[in-house]
Amino acid sequence: MTDQPLLNEIKALIKASGPMPVWRYMELCLMHPRHGYYVSRDPLGREGDFTTAPEVSQMFGELLGLWTASVWKQMGSPQFLRLVELGPGRGTMMADALRALRVLPPLYQALHIHMVEVNPVLRERQSATLAGVRNISWHDSIDDVPEGPSVILANEYFDVLPIHQMVKGENGWHERVIEIDPNGKLQFGAAAEPTPAFDVLLPPLVRAAPVGAVFEWRPDGEIMKLATRVRDQDGAALIIDYGHLRSDAGDTFQAIARHTFTDPLKAPGQADVTAHVDFRALARAAEDVGARVHGPVTQGDFLKRVGIDTRAAALMQKATPEVATDISVALKRLTDTGRSGMGSMFKVLGISEPRLTGIAGLSDLEHAGGNR
Predict the structure, then answer these.
(1) Can the keyword Methyltransferase be found in this entry's annotation (predicted)?
(2) How far apart are CA 100 and CA 97, in angstroms?
């Protein structure tokens, strides 16, 4: 790839200002106003770089629609509800959720749909997918969504929020950075001086990590916004992403292009760069602002609890043998725990206002924040 304007710009920034923190590099790769990965293309599906759960099967979005209905009932069936989706892809999940919700006319009439999306290409796809849906609007940020009782859905949203990476040295934890090697290529390095007193903030498990270990963390701002919103305005948020249940050391910074892992430093802006989500950190931050936390549980467990096996059986009963096979394959992909399945790698976390003591699919297990 000879035409790499973002790579050239990043190198110029490093030459002018010194090594670049990983969080800043990730931010530029994804959100650069001209060359950022998420502002210039449709990355989804077979022709793109990766496939998300809503693209695997209609069952995923339908069940999230029914989950929304159960939360609405627990809220007392308000006559007005904002249904918000963060990073809504092609609009597939929302379309499937709304189709399921049409069986509940009082809720369907109460809905105002809010799509939080910065990518103009995907906004067009969403608009086409959701043509005919009333009371729908688009926003650049959750901050722009008007106040009111809300159900917020965030599928594969937190994994692309920029991470800080820290490397443990002999004398403390150093910010991991991107620098230029003698051959003019990007490489990882570490800030010369350690971050003062960083280990005071760390869980004991991470504090005991060996020299050379990498620890990743995200600022709490985004999760605290969601938690504060549902705490104060009534409602719940559902977060689905790949990640881990406990805060631990480990380097999960990765890039995917054409459904294959690639070097995250090779072609900035031309591959999807992500990192695993620390669900314990999300739960802790939500609790710290006074929201109630539900889960997390694995995606496979969540989908089974909210009825995916029953839904798959109903769909297969009416389908041709070929389509029934496709439904069975999709069910395994969404719920299986093996390498090819999403069932255990992906986790589901609920956050609600404190009065909602139980939420479908989540509330009968201890949550991650409960034993910290």
Answers:
(1) yes
(2) 5
Dump pLDDT digits (tens) for 273-310: 999 999 999 999 999 999 999 999 999 999 999 999 99
Give me the phi and psi of 184, to 5 degrees please. Answer: 85, 10
Report residue 220 CA to chain centroid gap.
14
Domains of the chain: 53-161+220-260+269-352 (3.40.50.150)
Which residues touch 200 (CB under 8 Å, ≥6 apart)? none
Confidence of residue 9 (pLDDT cuts 50, 70, 90): very high
Q: At what angle do helices 321-335 and 58-74 cross, to 10 degrees?
A: 60
Copy the structure tokens of residue 253: 């910074």
Measured at the CA of 148, the angle between CA 147 and CA 152, to 5 degrees, comes to 90
Residue 284 to residues 38, 243, 293, 352, 365, Cα–Cα distance (Å): 28, 15, 9, 13, 16
